TrEMBL record, chain A:
<feature type="domain" description="Tyrosine specific protein phosphatases">
    <location>
        <begin position="332"/>
        <end position="394"/>
    </location>
</feature>
<protein>
    <recommendedName>
        <fullName>Myotubularin</fullName>
        <ecNumber>3.1.3.95</ecNumber>
    </recommendedName>
</protein>
<dbReference type="InterPro" id="IPR000387">
    <property type="entry name" value="Tyr_Pase_dom"/>
</dbReference>
<keyword id="KW-0963">Cytoplasm</keyword>
<keyword id="KW-0472">Membrane</keyword>
<dbReference type="InterPro" id="IPR004182">
    <property type="entry name" value="GRAM"/>
</dbReference>
<comment type="similarity">
    <text>Belongs to the protein-tyrosine phosphatase family. Non-receptor class myotubularin subfamily.</text>
</comment>
<dbReference type="InterPro" id="IPR029021">
    <property type="entry name" value="Prot-tyrosine_phosphatase-like"/>
</dbReference>
<dbReference type="GO" id="GO:0048311">
    <property type="term" value="P:mitochondrion distribution"/>
</dbReference>
Automatic annotation (TrEMBL), chain B:
<dbReference type="InterPro" id="IPR010569">
    <property type="entry name" value="Myotubularin-like_Pase_dom"/>
</dbReference>
<dbReference type="GO" id="GO:0046856">
    <property type="term" value="P:phosphatidylinositol dephosphorylation"/>
</dbReference>
<dbReference type="InterPro" id="IPR030576">
    <property type="entry name" value="MTMR12_PTP"/>
</dbReference>
<dbReference type="Pfam" id="PF12578">
    <property type="entry name" value="3-PAP"/>
</dbReference>
<comment type="similarity">
    <text>Belongs to the protein-tyrosine phosphatase family. Non-receptor class myotubularin subfamily.</text>
</comment>
<dbReference type="InterPro" id="IPR011993">
    <property type="entry name" value="PH-like_dom_sf"/>
</dbReference>
<dbReference type="InterPro" id="IPR030564">
    <property type="entry name" value="Myotubularin"/>
</dbReference>
<dbReference type="GO" id="GO:0030017">
    <property type="term" value="C:sarcomere"/>
</dbReference>
<dbReference type="GO" id="GO:0016020">
    <property type="term" value="C:membrane"/>
</dbReference>
Length: 591, 717
């Protein structure tokens, strides 16, 4: 049944439904089921409510509570649905469903044992939460929302490279990957050294894991030093060498007229890089690459990060660890990983900026840690990426187009919750960005809400933005034609995501302090479901600052008016506007 | 042993105060610049006066780095003698604590300050003679026991008789009128009275000249045990419930006298538990809160985490930062104190009971809790003058032993405990959680904590009003003996010019809306909201049943005890605190109403401004909370200048450029040091951890895996 249809037919009892903010999911939001349930709220105890399920979300409204408790959960965030209790379960509220979400919460619903209420709900939820496992399309393909902005227009690789002053006499744009023939996880458009031919690239591709050759991510406008990204070289146990790869890296080094060595940052811990030789991977050895210096950045793999987040969830959900909070936090290692990622990115940025040296960044495949490092370094070096649009471009470029495997890491619409490919790498990146914005509260055009919204829709499947693993698949699935972009939502309502304290500063390198003394747990994200953690929304300081901004603009306007009146020598100006002192008193009461 | 006569001439280039005397000096001292861990530094003269230790830079001629927030009394390279925490000498790369007589003189001197600055002075290029004199001079004057009258406070007061009336609107509580005013303000005068019993300190030297007690308490009882066992009024709540404090009887060996004391206490309790007085709850803080010794131990460990010698130290401790922090227990103490304060608030606000805080002298933890309760419940205490009046009432006049607790005279380490700092740390938590609710900023609190060690104000340099009064007369120094006129710290113009004072005021303070006819409705609503807080109480009382309550009442009256205790009180619903706390937090904040701090682990933070400001590795270049603050100040200035222009326009005066904006603070030069100093370092080199990783012991199998296991060696064969 279509939702609108349902709403028209709804009896008085269901008129609550009219209050739903069924965001313009339009007529297509099929209404699936509704049931009386008891929501086992971990904070307020059992709450009687009615749950409604559409093809996009699970919506619960309490029936007795005051104030009304509302749950609004896009089905995309669901990671796992389990039945609890059986037909013979006795205890009160022991029969129902236990839902694990990807966004740091769990939901438990107790149901009546009679009838087939649980079976119905379970089936509907499973089907629509895991469409990939049921041969269904993502909700994004059904979404018919309308926005005033088109987010798919935000990123155009050619204009982004042009913004960076590329191509130039040392760097060229190549279309060798136009049909993803060179590398199926790279974008179609790549920037490479002018002195390397397409043939060279093909040879290099043979020596790089999954053909992910070193390509340009960013060029420093003054030093012309570049950030290159790639995957590990296929050195293997035998310590294979590849003349083309060696020469290619030397071409990169020479491209900015650099005499010193090229710096290679291997994001992995040294031991892991060595261990990779056993499976054919490895790192650039000194003998083969005498003109390069290699540093390991000690960032751990996706499994370690996943475990770390799991531990973090254990200490914050449902209840925040009461005693020994700090040592519990430390034992999750979450902030320590953040510190290492930031430290690595600072090193990359500093090398390019004050070291005036080009750098090559890789890990194993160059789509997880590498993306974190290059994008954070770019955020530190280029103030454009600190604007709303610039950040969208950054994510679109370094993450989406360069094949961060969002589908595998998030497990969109996939029921296999224990998949070892899942890992919160992108969340970790956004956390790093949040840490930076916290340390530099005036340097970013976007606010915390912007980052939280990105994370919410990382899971929601309402937009096509984060679906699938690579550009080649996205093209095949016609994502830009058939779905909407998250940036459409954000850019249509920019003021909601704007940081009022933002002060535009051009070309200032921004180095966060990667010290535990400054790193904080992002409470407003990780502990946001806990009502005991106060979220002052909107932030009172921000709000008052905006009032002040409005006051200033008002003054400027009035002053202009006054000057016009004065200039035209109309003397009874005082009659037309309030005197300033009068206004001030209004302002004070207003505050 | 110090020569005092050759002095005055040299003092010309010291920014000296009246009454300040040069005691010793040494030249070609090399002061390291801490910022980059290199051996960079400057040569200069190290001097020690009866007020401070100062380093005079040889090329200080023109410094364009003039900070906007200059302290007029204590400069960047000045350390008041009371601000010195510990002095270490370095002998062959080994650090040794310097305390008394020295046999050998060190090559390097490290001075750790109570405001957490660290100075490194190299003495290798200084004449041996001068080294001896300056090192022993500094150690002697800053680390050895002193007489009260040798505090610089007295030299300054006699040399610079001041006439400034720095009280602004701060109520000093030195007069009977001040107390009556406070009673009137809080509408406590129906049940409480200000008494003059202690005039001439007849009752006790520890009690203030004037104080407030329940009307029913007689003069005789006050006099009987030197004021012990007497409930002394702190503050009355809008619903009439009052916060009281009492100094307990010491444990008596003699059985009969302890019997008498018990009987006396019972009598007192009986009188003040009868109507019109509310039910009474007592709380013995010495058993429900950490001891002063615990507090001192915790702070000593805590501050050590911020007194950092070099970059290696900084990064080495960074790896285990959170567990180090936890092991000091300081944040946990802050949490417990805040929690206790909320418990008291709950009794006053929701249960409408009087709360009597008990402590041996009622001048330490009593002051912390009663001040916090007032900050949370009384929005007047969140204004600058209100907060200052509160400090006067509870601490300065209330008889907190600042002299002993800060160990200003180095008499006894046993008495030392950072009780007042504990309060400021707790208030800071509230300020950072609810910035619009306070008229003052965190910088104000930081500066106030710094002022604890500036001995030109009497505020923090006496143990009691009596001690101050008896030392007021200048008999010892001058024959004509006119009484000293001490400065009060509340006269901020002594330390800061008006521009710098702007940093103390919160531009975003939510001013209390003036009563307005159109607002009456909302005002009443607000009132209702306060009253509606005991929502859950009705619920719980129905659960307990009418009869039960009645019998409780009966039993209490029969026993003559309408007194409950926090501890072991069985009739109290166990979760009443949690309910109260949660119910308040589920409602929107009224910045002029009741304010409860969040006390969950993640919400209790380190006061970064006070503790991290001098650590170069922790500097955020162009960032930190100060970046926002600077933006706000700029905007305020712009709005003000626009207002001026508007006035000019109205008066038809010639106006300048419409959009001329006041000079913006160059935020790139600002760091977390700001406003206390500007960065010396011109190049911005990021601080990089030197020691980063520690083992993930328990996750070895995960650590050794690769992201995705694929055998790549097959691909290329």
């Amino acid at each position: 049944m279509k939702l609108s249809h349902f709403l028209n037919n709804s009896s008085g009892q269901n008129s609550d439904l009219l209050l739903f903010k069924f965001i313009h999911l339009s007529e297509n939001a099929a209404f699936l089921t509704d049931k009386d349930v008891i929501y086992m709220c971990p904070f307020n105890g059992p709450v009687k409510g009615r749950v409604y399920i559409t093809n996009y979300r699970l919506y619960l409204r309490s029936v007795e509570n005051d104030p009304v408790l509302v749950l609004n959960v896009p089905l995309g965030v669901i990671s796992r649905i389990e039945k609890m209790g059986g037909a013979s379960s006795r205890g009160e509220n022991s029969y129902g469903l236990d839902i694990t979400c990807k966004d740091m919460r769990n939901l438990r619903f107790a149901l009546k044992q009679e009838g087939h209420s649980r079976r119905d709900i379970f089936e509907v939820l499973t089907k629509y939460a895991f469409p990939q496992s049921h041969n269904l399309l993502f909700f994004a393909f059904a979404n018919e929302e309308k926005f005033s902005e088109n987010g798919w227009m935000v990123y155009n690789p050619m204009s982004e490279y042009r913004r960076q002053g590329l191509p130039n006499e040392r760097w060229r744009v190549t279309f060798i990957n136009e049909h993803y023939g060179l590398c199926d996880t790279y974008p179609s458009l790549l920037v490479v050294p002018y002195n390397a031919t397409d043939d060279d690239l093909k040879k290099v591709a043979a020596f790089r894991s999954r053909n992910r050759i070193p390509v340009l991510s960013w060029i420093h406008p003054e030093t012309q030093a570049v950030i290159m990204r790639c995957s590990q070289p296929l050195v293997g146990m035998g310590g294979k060498r590849n003349k083309d790869d060696e020469r290619y890296l030397d071409i990169i080094r020479e491209a900015n007229g650099q005499i010193s060595k090229l710096t290679i940052y291997d994001a992995r811990p040294n031991v892991n890089a060595v261990a990779n030789k056993a499976t054919g991977g490895g790192y650039e050895g000194e003998d083969a690459y005498p003109n390069a210096e290699l540093f390991f950045l000690d960032i751990h793999n996706i499994h370690v990060m996943r475990e770390s987040l799991k531990k973090l969830k254990d200490i914050v959900y449902p209840n925040v660890e009461e005693s020994h909070w700090l040592s519990s936090l430390e034992s999750t290692h979450w902030l320590e990983h953040i510190k290492l990622v930031l430290t690595g990115a600072i090193q990359v940025a500093d090398k390019v900026s004050s070291g005036r040296s080009s750098v090559v960044v890789h890990c194993s495949d160059g789509w997880d840690r590498t993306a974190q490092l290059t994008s954070l370094a770019m955020l530190m070096l280029d103030s454009y990426y600190r604007t709303i649009e610039g950040f969208e471009v950054l994510v679109q470029k370094e993450w989406i187009s360069f094949g961060h495997k969002f589908a595998s890491r998030i497990g969109h619409g996939d029921k296999n919750h224990a998949d070892a490919d899942r890992s919160p790498i992108f969340l970790q990146f956004i956390d790093c960005v949040w840490q930076m914005s916290k340390q530099f509260p005036t340097a970013f055009e976007f606010n915390e809400q912007f980052l939280i919204t990105i994370l919410d829709h990382l899971y929601s499947c309402r937009f096509g933005t984060f679906l699938y693993n690579s550009e080649s698949v996205r093209e095949k699935e016609k994502v830009t034609e058939k779905t909407l972009s998250l940036w459409s939502l954000i850019n249509s309502e920019k003021s909601k995501y704007t940081n009022p304290f933002y002060t535009k500063e051009l070309n200032r390198a921004l180095y966060p302090v990667a010290s535990m003394r400054h790193l904080e747990l992002w409470v407003n994200y990780y502990i946001r479901w806990n009502p005991r953690i106060r979220q002052q929304q909107p932030n009172p300081v921000e709000q008052r600052y905006m009032e002040l901004l409005a006051l200033r603009d008002d003054y400027i306007r009035r002053l202009e008016e006054l000057q016009i009146t004065n200039n035209s020598k109309i003397t009874n100006s005082s009659a037309s506007s309030a005197s300033p002192s009068q206004m001030m008193s209004q302002v004070q009461t207003h505050f | 042993h110090v020569q005092l006569n050759s002095v005055q001439s040299i003092l010309t280039n010291v920014n000296n105060l009246e009454g300040e005397l040069l005691l010793c000096e040494a030249s070609t001292v090399y002061k390291y610049i801490q910022e980059d861990g290199s051996n960079r530094g400057t040569y200069g003269k190290l001097v020690c006066t009866n007020f401070k230790i100062a380093f005079l830079d040889d090329n200080s001629a023109s410094d364009d780095n003039e900070p906007q927030f200059e302290n007029k009394i204590v400069g960047e390279n000045d350390i008041t003698l009371q601000c010195v925490d510990q002095i270490y000498g370095v002998y062959d790369e080994k650090k040794k604590l310097l305390t008394g007589q020295l046999r050998k003189y060190p090559e390097k001197l490290i001075i750790y300050c109570k405001d957490l600055r660290v100075f490194h002075f190299c003495l290798r290029y200084t004449k041996e003679e001068e080294v001896k004199r300056i090192v022993s001079g500094i150690v002697h004057h800053s680390q050895t026991p002193k007489l009260l009258k040798r505090l610089f406070l007295f030299s300054y007061a006699s040399a610079a008789p001041n006439n400034t009336d720095g009280r602004n609107q701060t109520v000093m509580f030195e007069t009977l009128e001040d107390w009556r005013g406070e009673l009137e303000r809080t509408k406590g005068n129906a049940k409480y009275k200000a008494v003059t019993t202690n005039e001439g300190y007849r009752v006790s030297e520890k009690l203030p000249l004037y104080f407030v007690v329940p009307i029913c308490v007689s003069e005789e009882s006050i006099l009987k045990y030197e004021g012990r066992g007497i409930p002394i009024w702190c503050w009355s709540c809008h619903n009439g419930a009052a916060l009281l404090k009492m100094s307990a009887f010491p444990k008596e060996q003699d059985d009969s006298s302890s019997q008498m004391q018990k009987a006396f206490l019972d009598g007192i309790y009986k009188t003040i538990s009868k109507p019109p007085y509310e039910l009474l709850k007592t709380d013995d803080l010495s058993s429900s809160l950490p001891s002063l010794q615990d507090i001192q131990t915790a702070y000593t460990k805590f501050k050590q985490l911020f007194l950092i010698d070099n970059s290696t130290d900084f990064w080495a401790t960074d790896v285990k930062w959170f567990s180090l922090l936890e092991s000091t227990n300081w944040l946990e103490i802050i949490r417990r104190v805040l929690k206790k304060a909320i418990e008291v608030v709950e009794c006053l606000e929701r249960q409408h009971t009087n709360v009597l805080l008990i402590e041996e002298s009622a001048t330490d933890l009593c002051c912390v809790i009663s001040s916090l309760v007032q900050v949370m419940m009384d929005s007047y205490s969140r204004t600058k003058s209100g907060f200052q009046s509160l400090i006067q009432k509870e601490w300065v006049i209330g008889g907190h032993g600042f002299l002993d607790r800060c160990n200003h005279l180095h008499r006894s380490d046993k008495e030392e405990a950072p009780v007042f700092l504990l309060l400021l740390n707790c208030v800071w938590q509230l300020v950072q959680q609810y910035p619009p609710a306070f008229e003052f900023t965190e910088t104000y609190l930081t500066v106030l904590s710094d002022s604890l060690y500036v001995p030109i104000f009497s505020t923090f340099f006496f143990n009691s009003q009596h001690q101050k009064d008896t030392n007021m007369s200048g008999e010892s120094l001058n024959t004509q003996s006119s009484p000293f006129r001490f400065l009060t710290v509340w006269d901020w113009s002594v330390q800061f010019d008006p521009k710098a004072q702007a940093f103390l005021n919160n531009p975003l303070y939510a001013d209390k809306p003036k009563p307005d006819k159109s607002h009456r409705k909302t005002a009443r609503f607000k009132h209702q909201r306060q009253l509606s807080l005991p929502l859950t109480q009705t619920k719980s009382s129905t659960k307990r049943g009418f009869f039960r309550e009645e019998t409780d009442h009966l039993i209490k009256n029969i026993l003559g005890k309408r007194i409950g205790k926090f501890i072991n009180s069985s009739d109290e619903p166990p979760n009443s605190f949690r309910e109260f706390y949660d119910s308040w937090h589920s409602k929107p904040v009224d910045y002029h109403g009741l304010l409860l701090p969040c006390i969950d682990g993640p919400e209790i933070k380190v006061w970064a401004q006070r503790y991290l400001r001098w650590i170069p590795e922790a500097q955020l270049h162009g960032g930190g909370t100060i970046a926002t603050a600077a933006n706000i100040l700029d905007l305020m200035e712009e709005v003000q200048s626009l207002q001026v222009k508007m006035d000019e326009e109205h008066s038809q005066a010639i106006s300048g450029d419409l959009h001329s904006v006041p000079v913006l603070r160059n935020s790139a030069r600002l760091s977390s040091l700001f406003p206390f100093a500007l960065l010396q370092r011109q190049s911005i080199k990021p601080a990089l951890p030197t020691s980063t990783w520690k083992d993930l012991e328990d996750e070895d199998d995960l650590v050794n895996r690769d992201d995705e296991f694929v055998d790549l060696s097959g691909d290329i064969l």
